[in-house]
Amino acid sequence: AFPSLANAWEPWRLDAIVISHLHPDHFIDLVALRHYLRYEFRPPRRVRVLGPAGLDGRLDALHAEPGFAAESLDVEAVGGPSVRTIGPFTIQAGFVTHTSESYAYRVSGSSGPAIVYSGDCGRAADLAALLQPGDVLLTEVSFGLGPVPEGALHLDAPAVGALAADRRPSRVLLTHLQMGHDPLATIDLVRSRFGGPVDLMRPGVRLTLG
User: Fold this and answer.
1) What is the pTM of this model?
2) Euclidean distance between CA atoms 189 and 3, whole angstroms
């Protein structure tokens, strides 16, 4: 994620980065960001990071170095369901079923649709409180056509399609499809439940939402 970000936007200019939960595939690129901020600039620069409690400790543990994260990252705990203003955006955080502290986020600006990002989520109904009609839903669909194995705490296409049909987002963007699941069949199944646009996100895709 970090090289793609750096090719599109100067990372130190970000107002903040928001992390959904403490599984490494969702935060490990903070290490590359930390190194970039620490060693590319004199003096080093900083970026604000919000996430579940203990995120800074996870980063420090990677190098067995207390204070590793704090050298370049201003890490704050989300602290539960909340609403914050970050730069031009309003960020609403809500709990989802996955780890002991996992969040989905609704990001809205002064114009255009809001984006609701599921993070990793094991219960589609958890997203309903954040997702308003007309929002863009960026959601995991880990197990494709399904079913989700017992205890996996992820979503599949039937769950996403049912959520979208109920909450009526303007668009559904699918992500986090695990290897071995058919992308086209997954998209088609969500489309069969939801009448709006459905796309699967791939590295390098850029979208204009409006």
Assistant:
1) 0.96
2) 32
Per residue in 174-205, pLDDT (tens digit) is 999 999 999 999 999 999 999 999 999 998 88
Give the whole-angstrom CA distance, residue 178 versus residue 141.
Answer: 8
Structure tokens at 85: 């203003």
Give the C-alpha separation, 131 to 158, whole Å. 17
Q: What is the pLDDT of residues 102-156, one digit of tens each?
A: 999 999 999 889 999 999 999 999 999 999 999 999 999 999 999 999 999 999 9
b/e string for 25-40 if b means 16 or more Cβ within 10 A?
ebbebbbebbebbbee
CA distance 61 to 69: 10
Sign of CA dihedral 152, 154, 156, 161: positive
The vertex-132 CA angle with 128 and 135, nearest 5°, equals 115
